[in-house]
Amino acid sequence: MKNIPYGRHNVTREDLEAVNEALLSDFLTQGPRAEEFEKAFAEYIGVKYAVSVSNGTAALDLCVKALNTAHGDKFITTPITFVASANCVKFNGGEVFFSDIDRQSYLLDLNKLEDLVKKEPPGSYKAVIPVDFAGYPVNLQELKTLADKYRFSIIEDAAHSPGGAFKDSLNNWQNCGNGNFADLAIFSFHPVKHIATGEGGMITTNNKDLYKRILRLRSHGITKDPDYLIENHGGWYYEMLELSGNSRITDFQAALGTSQLKRAGEGLKKRRAIAEKYNQSLKGIKGLTTPIISADVNHAFHLYIVEVAERKKFYDYLKNNGIFAQIHYIPVHLQPYYKQFGWKKGDFPMAEDYYEHGISLPMYPTLSDEEQDYVIEKIIGFF
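RE: above sequence
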């Protein structure tokens, strides 16, 4: 059996043809294919506006900028995420605060979040950045209730969850990133994600003003939109209205993204089938915990995470058998950079306990039945 990674991209002949066509066109950097990708993705998610960018980190950075973040503005995110969910705040002069997770879903615990924000007057926190961790959606309707009460914005980190959804109080499905509750949402198109462009990301929103501003911020703060120009010297004329950098995506990346998006539903269906097979095969094993399942959630299963008592021993055992599992994530507050601001072990016991036990098993649409059977066989053998 060949080595089996925790995640793997899949490039088809159709993808190659789409990229090749883009490479032979008049545009290599951002062009008409980027706009095509944005429109197709917005339709897939069910949101009004989408802006493609160079990567998920750039998407987070532009969202924080778009909220007019000033030095010292306070943001809250989860400790169980990739560092970019917190770094985007520091890049813009803000202060990062963390709130502990719910031990079953691994998402921000909204009760603990409210305990934190209610200690200060409404408006004291600029925004909360919840993470749809592993593809499990945050209940943004409940978070929006807190946001309205305590006057903070919401930037949904949906990097793991395109195609994920939760049921609202009226029993309607709400897609991750659809803009009905969050001010802004971001997605990532890193190779191991649901849709791959090599590097790439997307920002979604239903707010037209935020959409227009992010379009400017994506490209040096420059606009040619007549509605925003102070002067207008002619068709060539542009103005730089604010300081920003270059976060544009290339047209050939966008072509790959559009091609991959066409089979996103198929990939999501396969991920859920793989998760179900894991669930059925691994249930009841003493010493192993499988992910939480809820009828009110459509899990996008970017990751399939189990918990074990002897995590290091289990990780090494899998590796020695050619199964390259991964750990998602080392708590951000325990990274050396963040510890310098006073965060320490013991601050978020639920997140830290999860980290001691969580491990991501192989999960990607091209994982074969034979490969998954091998993984399951080795796991059962360990226990």
